[in-house]
Amino acid sequence: MGHAGKFYLFVTVFLAVAVVVGGVVLALNHSKNQPVEIDLSQTGTPELSGEVYIGGAVANPGIYPVREGDTLQDILLDAGIEAGADLSDIKIYIPAEGEGQPPQKVDINRAEPWLLQALPDIGKTRAKAIEDYREENGPFKRIEDLLQVEGIGEGTFEKIRDYITVSD
Asked: From CA 88, how far away is CA 166, in angstroms rounded?
């Protein structure tokens, strides 16, 4: 191979290396500059089922079932929004899977006798006594006032303490 042959071989190898390196550089730059598509559309409405606790300024605080198609307004109407309710400050808490749920508290100022009977050691007679006390003395100011009701002593009160509440 002569001097000219070596020169052409060198130029050919150089051009081949330049084409490969240029192709790699272009491929890298091309992939870095590709626009990223961001889809802001919602992937779908999460399926709601189970129960929701409604408390605060409602006539019937408690746990309500959530059925397919229910809206927040439907559930709040079931609970009975009170006139003084501040609907601009609704709080929703979604527990993590496996997180415990606090027990439902019975409002002793509003509960019907059948609901009072669901409390430990409160049967038909004590539920009627609570209802009669409310009618004669007005609403309970604090849960300890329940001790004023005939037939409810310290033992019964301690059993239901964590399950009751009072509202204004």
From this structure: 23
